[in-house]
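User: quick one, fold this
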Amino acid sequence: MIFGKQLNPNNTVAKGNILIAEPFLPDGNFERTVVLLCEHSDEAGTFGLILNKPTSLLVSETTDLLEIEEKIYIGGPVEQNTLHFIHTFSELKGCIPIKDGIYWGGDIEQLSHYGNLRQLNPSNCRFFVGYSGWAAQQLAREIEQNSWIIYRQSISALFEWPTDRMWQIILRSMGGKYRAYSNFPEDPRLN
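Assistant:
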């Protein structure tokens, strides 16, 4: 319950869900974003990474630990001096399972070794600066206010979704009114 109001069970989220920003979310940090939830607890809050905000920087330009020539993404507006990564390497020490063979974090030295062997690429690993975070119950309130659409289906194809069209692709795949949302113009005044 939030402020004496029973939450709609269709609005509950879990680790591995994806949040899709509603078409006209007025927050510039999250406009048309797709956020993977890496951790979620009603008591402790939520940690996620924006999947569709690439930068022009390469991973190798942000850290001396990794010589990887792949773009780095903005994970969110919180602590943009931190580096995070998701991947498909279940054997990576210390990694945290998210869902459907996708993992978060782990031993950076072991990951660097994979990079040296040229085993890291956009089809199995993505790096982020910063993250998206919500205090306990904050995300639930935002969902109740219709700021986010929850995608609960499989994320096994996450690394295959093109980042420049990810928002539209996921909404289209959800069908119904969400398919219509995927066609909303970014600025309705220009329609």
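User: anything notable?
Assistant: The chain has five helices and ten strands.
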